[in-house]
Amino acid sequence: MRNSGALIALFAFAFFVTGCVSQSPIADESGTASPPVAEATITEPATPTPYATAKPTDSAASDGGEQAAEIEEPLIEHIGVEIGDYDPSTRSAGDFVFTRSPVFLGKIFHDYGELLNATADGSKTKLNVQPTYLLPMGTKVRALTSGTVERIVELYSGDYSVMIMKSRDSPWRYELEHVINPVVKPGDKVVAGQVVAEVSTHMSQYNSGYGFVEIGILKGGNPPIHYCPYAYLDPKVKGNLTAKISALYKAWEAYREDDSLYEENDYATPGCLTLDPLEG
Which domain holds residue 187? Predict the structure, then answer.
């Protein structure tokens, strides 16, 4: 179910994805609108400049690395942030803090494969290639999997992307995008759930002081191919985490008094509207 406010938010979110920030007033928790931010255009360089690089090593892959890459599955043990049951006394569900202020598309959790923009005839669409969380700035961001920090790249938005590999021969990359204050460097070993950085200020001017952070599993170069992260949850944690994502949907819809925000019957799995690989 759509209304005019949702459509406006839809196009604003599409501008965010392509690197353009448009003028948009927001309201604080009390509903008081703040002045619109001056219009600015941000262009992402075709090839990001690495903040630092290192060639990861992995003793398990040093013997027969090609065979290890063939049998490796891109399993993840963490979704990047903490998620929990909703607590009305704190308005929080783990790291997610509920707000009645305007946010993009009315959501604090944007799904993989979510439609961001489309032409009137449906001939062209823009789908979300990385699940996106809306969180208080400074929230700790954690490694999706155990492995080695491959590189840390400075983005067009002035914040960073942290890339992790399981082994040096793996085709898979595990990304945490739009973070600041990284506490790791290329070549560092990390374990799943380890704090590696913080949620940046990116898009906070349009989301009542909350910032965006994105997670991703991807292959390839420019552009890479993305995959639904929640389809690759380790079986040891999958049941618990997918149940928590579904519970977050329901709690947020109840809080916002809009049960149409997450149509789970259309989802391939909680967190993903499709399991298809997406380029971007």
Answer: 4-279
